Amino acid sequence: MDNRIIYLDHAATTPVKPEVLEEMLPYFTNKFGNASSIYSIGRESKKAIEEARERVAKALGAMPREIFFTGSGSEADNWAIKGVAYANKAKGNHIITTAIEHHAVLHTCQYLESDGFEVTYLPVDENGLVSPEQVRKAIKPSTTLITIMFANNEIGTIQPIAEIGKIAKEHNIYFHTDAVQAVGNIPINVNELNVDLLSLSAHKFYGPKGVGALYIRKGVKITNFLHGGAQERGRRASTENVAGIVGLGKAIELATNNIEQYNKKLIELRDRTIEEITKKVPFVKLNGDRYKRLPGNVNFSFQFIEGESLLLMLDMKGIAASSGSACTSGSLDPSHVLLAIGLDHETAHGSLRITFGEENTHEDVDYLMEVLPAIVQRLREMSPLYEKVKRGN
Question: Do both 142 and 248 map to the same domain?
């Protein structure tokens, strides 16, 4: 094994592709103009933004005027939820979501609860799936928004978005999906899915950090999230991150043009890893649906060990992985997602998330399986709980 870091945390972030960086670089230097300026280098920036908007729209099956650039996926989630909630308050104050959403959604919904809104947090089954029928039953006359993530960032479970979208449309309720983990990994057409709002983030599909987008279907009633300028057709104030937007446009084009071949490779790596871990490591549980999951996502809970210790020992062997969401890695609490699918606190603490990307190979899986079982066994030998199991108590 050489000194190369084997990066297995693509759900947290991805490297910027060379082709993406190449398109971005001129907008840091000679093409630095403010897109709101009328002189030539300003017009060049404006043109680059509109070209990126067209690329994003094409990737989603949307119209360019329905795409609005943001500073992140989290901002897009906040804008979608708060914007629809406040714009439609006269109609009702009820929102439906699930217990396993990203905190960008959960914390936004909790904030709205403190401001008089009512939120229903639907449970999920042991695989992390919400039932469309549960969604239907939760609808009230006061429901104005359903917000359910496309694919879970921790366990990789893909939700029945098309069925939920159909239910929302039947009841004339806006439907938002946090698709930050899905875009670039799953083919998406907003019209086929009956989605009214969709959030995405460039750094999840080999674009730069600090830039995202929100799809807002034409006719959706939504308030502005940022005020102070006329950018984004008066909908989102702030001088545009031109280089970032250009990078997002290029990255989403590359990701969606190559998605079938990319998925085939990731599914092979994912399935082989699941089979190897299940075969070589006892007392493990695969988290998330076995097949309705993101192509590159593997999430296991290992009994009798702490996930943090496992990550540190993998890092010492040159493997970068995760125990869950990068946004909550500083928390000592077990994953809310793993608790929601029925795991106890102890088992939830022993989770490992492996997420593959296009640079990963079968040799990476070979090396992972060379070191992982030994690390797990070593950590278990330190556990008094495991000692009881060995003794048959």
Answer: yes
